[in-house]
Amino acid sequence: MVLLVREMEVEFYRSLRRIRFPAERLTVFQGANGVGKTNLYRALQLIQAAAAGTLARELAAEGGMPSVLWAGPRPARAPARIRLAVTLEPDDPIPGSGRYRYEVEVGMKAPAEAALPYEPLVKQERVTFVKSRRPITLLERRGPAITAMDAEGHRSQPDIDLMASETALSAVRDPARYPDLDMLRQILLDWRFYHDLRTDPASPIRRPCLAVATPTLASDGSNLAAVFATLMFIREDVAELDRAIQDSFPGAQLEVPPPGQTASFGLRFADFPHRVFDAAELSDGTLRYLALMGALLGYRLPAFIALNEPEASLHPDLLAPLARLIARAAQRTQIWLVSHSETLAAALAEAGGITPRVVAKRDGATWIEGLRIGGDFLDDEDA
Q1: Residue pair 308/28 in contact by the 8 Å Cβ criterion
Q2: What is the CATH architecture assignment of 193-352?
Q3: What's the pTM?
Q4: For residue 383, is pLDDT > 70?
């Protein structure tokens, strides 16, 4: 089953005081530096980290709870907690299908809790399935107490030894007994986040990689050569790849030698038809663009792809081709993109027929222009 993100909700994480908003097949956030665009992107990464069991470690790497908590005013007597929630729904919902919602709250160590001083601890966690008006709770965790609904519809306490910093979604691993929880976890783990496509001289993208059939680009792009080789020698269909090359580098040709133990690639430019420039020789912008092509044109795309400022290091002439590449990929998967480039946002609006969302600060908190308190946009009424 393919589940798409339909709604995201965040409270008290960095500059996100309290925000709830819908997600489309192609969602584009554009705004100036410092308004909190990356926090929107990062909040979804943290949802995936909860599924992977690394949520506490990810927050600790950001400086721990004192660093990641919203620094502004909170409701009186309210506990200092971060709340993350995501709602997912089938790609093509049919009558009778439902939606899943995962919610997790993380807070500070209480005096009596056995934990390290600044360690983020999971306070509450819930998975619900909504098919009609009444939601069905598939997993509920309050502190150390956990209950889950099994495949027969019975509630029980899973036999797991869960630490306060661990998420129940990552720890309840019994596909036969809890199939819905296993499915949801696997879907979240399949998401891809592309923000660290390094192009420096030591970047793994510049080196050959193991020649193994590779349907999806790794988050760091390290298997890019294998992604290209899979399209060329296993799918044996590179029409979309050639189309993207011609759209961005007219007259150029992607060269992928028959792989042996390793796979590699290079680019032959129109100005130098007898010379192949291998990955180690390509400019940062050209290499980054090729990596984005690998992410968006792979043999098999994940159900969700997030791109953080994909325009970084690209020549302005590449922004319109990039927008067309992203719009075509959005026909195969769901894409979430944050950017500070008005040019890219405008090109995506034209290529994808979407409305880019402008991110700004409101009373010190990150907000999205046109978003109403109820979690929808003003222009949705005109749709």
Answers
A1: no
A2: 3-Layer(aba) Sandwich (3.40)
A3: 0.93
A4: no
